[in-house]
Amino acid sequence: MERMDVKRGANVGEGFSPPELPRRKPNRLPFEVYRSGGPFFLTASVRGRRRAFSSSEAVACCLSALRETADKQGLGISEYCFMPDHVHLLVVAPDGADVMAFMQRFKQASGFACNRLLGEKGPFWQRSYYDHVLRREEDLESVRGYINENPVRAGLVEVPEEYPFSGSFVAGREG
To answer: pTM for the complete prediction?
Structure first.
């Protein structure tokens, strides 16, 4: 067996450089995108994918927090749909409005209220959320259709109009 001499004072692993690992895609877009205005498609899931929104009381609790947070942040909620374990939002933000801050405040307020209502403790929502910035009018209509058809695809109703936990905060379309 060959003996390797190690110089005194040398660091173990000196000269070793780990292989280049693929970088994980950042979870969020650059900050300025969230303040640039326009439509955003957002999806947040209940922690552990619990079916918290099977209860109309929990949906009402979250709707109240959603309306209040959107009003305070100056955002429009063009579409919303509370599925049993997640929520889809189509948010329209004016220039300068902070969509990240909106989601943080909405999740905090609704999570606190829903936990109190349901007698739960700990985080209500999963840590992060899905976001997508919409760029073209046809994208807006496509996302609106996706949100409205979600309960049908999930087998909860036959037609979107039958689903009680979706709607809009745009005048004349309140759900």
So the answer is: 0.79
